[in-house]
Amino acid sequence: TTARLARAPPIQFGEIPMNTNDATRATARALPEISGLLRRTIERHDAAAAYFDSVCYLSDPSVLGRDPTEDETAVYDAANEIEANTLSEVCYFPACNPDELAAKARHLRKYHDRKRGCLQDWQVENLLRSMLPDDERDQIDDSEEAGKGGAA
Predict the structure, then answer these.
(1) Helices 70-92, 98-111: crossing angle, 10 deg rounding
(2) Fewest 10 Å CB contacts: which of 26, 31, 82, 86?
(3) Within 10 A of 60 (CB to CB), how many other CB atoms are there?
(4) Tens of pLDDT along 86-130?
(5) Residue 86's closest CA among 137, 143, 47?
(6) Is-contact 25 33, C-beta < 8 A?
(7) Residue-averaged pLDDT of the chain
(8) First-to-last CA distance in the chain?
(9) How far apart are CA 80 and CA 72, in angstroms?
(10) What is the pTM of this model?
(11) What angle do CA 34, 36, 40 make, to 5 degrees?
(12) What does the alpha-carbon distance between residue 90 and residue 82 come to, in Å, rounded to a whole number?
């Protein structure tokens, strides 16, 4: 049986400012030996994280001086979801060589900290799947799923 993966929908680039910032340029310089696809996946997450950082105040009553409006909450929730999903895309990306593995690990470590919190279980699941051979990556044995949560 094929498992349903926590795969992210494509980013709607109209929702994220696409001007190249210093962090994105630094990421591009720091990743010389990786595929264009992994580079773009990491850059998409960097852009999503920068956008999320730019709107995260919208959910904070102490910063706003009032409760957030429904529109502000919707913007925050959408940015949060896009950031989490693009981080999951980085987790799921299969590294093809040691340079890609190192770049992916450095990127994930940058976002797995006290400020941002830990990777979610579904992101860790995608990270582990990325390490499997291609023919096993999208498959989960039903018995493995049934075995989660301890003794039967």
Answers:
(1) 150
(2) 26
(3) 12
(4) 999 999 999 988 899 999 999 998 887 756 677 888 888 888 888
(5) 47
(6) no
(7) 76
(8) 21
(9) 12
(10) 0.67
(11) 105
(12) 12
